[in-house]
Amino acid sequence: MTAIDHTPTIAPAPRRVLNVMRLHVANPFPTLALPWLITAAIFAVNLAIWLMIANAAGGVDNLESDAFQYNGGISWIVFFMTVVAVQAMNLTFRFALGFSVTRRVYYVGTALYFVALSLLYSLGITVLAAIERATDGWGLGAAFFAPWGLSSEPLLLVWFLYLMAMLLFFFLGAAVATVWVRWGAYGLYAFFIGLAFLVVGGAWLVTATDSWGDVGAFFATTPLAQIAAWTLPVTLLCGLLGYVFLRKATPQG
Amino acid sequence: MTAIVEVEDLTKRFGRVTAVDHATFSLEEGGIHGLLGRNGAGKTTLMGLLTGQEFATSGEARIFGEGPVENARALRRVCFIKESQVYPDDFQGKHVLRAAPWFFDNWDQQFAERLVDVFKVPLDRKMKKLSRGQRSAIGVIVGLASRAELTFLDEPYAGLDAVARHRFYDVLLEDYTAHPRTVVLSTHLIDEAADLLQRVVVIDEGRIVIDADADELRGSATTLVGKASAVDSFAAGRTVVDRTTLGGIASVTVAGLSSDDRRAAASAGLEATAVSLQELIVSRTGGTDTDDQERGAA
User: Fold this and answer.
1) Does A92 touch chain B (CB under 8 A)?
2) How many helices (H) does chain B have, and how many strands (E)?
3) Is residue A232 domain-resident?
4) Cα(A183)–Cα(A167) distance, rounded to whole angstroms?
5) Are the beta carbons of B180 and A3 separated by less than 8 Å?
6) Global pTM?
7) ipTM of this predicted structure
């Protein structure tokens, strides 16, 4: 019998977590390029529409000053983060498992990557909002990156709102992705039916207790930052659920 | 000697299908071992259980004396190359090879590059677009260059042609000699790999039907050919595994011949040949030697 001639060099767990993050960047397109491309496309379409209207009106000065201030285009990129998360986890999970990575290390690495992406995208959009502000709304008085009155809020708040929103949708994506990886399509049906029941049930509760007025008042009187911070418990719950779902997932799904 | 792989009364059910059925065996540290069986016999599931990818229904699987499930310390010393490995969308061969050293501590980059030359795999094409053989080759490169203490190669040469398969045997043996470790090879091309193997575990419909040293198995059965009458008188009272008659010529496969027996057979005018591992396994797993045995390619 021949002896095993090498002792294992111990790679500390943090390095493996970091390497899971690198795994997500090995092909950077879906997580680092695609969302910006989609943002750029939506922005370009909006810009074209503004120019068209401004042209037809014979100049921006003939329009009301807040004509281009209400625009939901940027919200798509926030929602899109759920898709990014699902895509990122769907195939890398089985690949990482095939490279002797534990589910725990994979999930921690992936969650950290999502946090990093949230920071990156919220910062990027805030920078664009700052440019938007400095150029007087791209010379058109338009608001794309900080619409709905956000253009007059401090940039720090704008950044915080985007960060909270991105985190929420990334981890919603993580929960959805792990349901998919573990239970496949039927798991997703059950998950979304369950989610629909929760939403409708919540609305039912609010209606039954006649508290829509209170709900409205909460959103009207609570500072934006506080409302945004209230997404954190939901984000954490999604993150936790994702781990619970993934812990027993197998490559077969 | 220490057991590097231990399986105890291990069962895995997928719904009503029992993929692994109360399996028990162990493998010693060091050596190339064969996990043999027909397609769908449970080889991949067994390897999945041993690497923590699958969860056992009952019983125990251990590597390095520990359970593999979520065991980062044990899994770090393992490389499992699965035939059905899924790669991330748009991943090319070069992405796979770039990621491998991040997770395999003993990764040898130069060796990996040499193997890329040996198998002539295109690294700049999407994994999805590669042929089965090319994907297998990338798996083989990762499996060998990772130099994991415990390497599981599941049908590593599915889709590879005979030339590539022989290159694989050559590099496996060469690298194993230079860097001894434990390799568990699953295959249904039994005779091709037979000379490499030390321990042979045969699984059939989830059950372990053979668990023996390869040498011991090779000597365990002999085929005798000669005149029907001489064959019959020799075979009387012995364990006959297989028997065919053609005209006046008969052939029997008998278990466990001593050297005295062999001399007796020779003097009775019988021609003796050792039964190949593959024939032996085919006869023991009850199947006929059929289409899923790609032996013609060898």
Assistant:
1) yes
2) 11, 13
3) yes
4) 24
5) yes
6) 0.84
7) 0.81
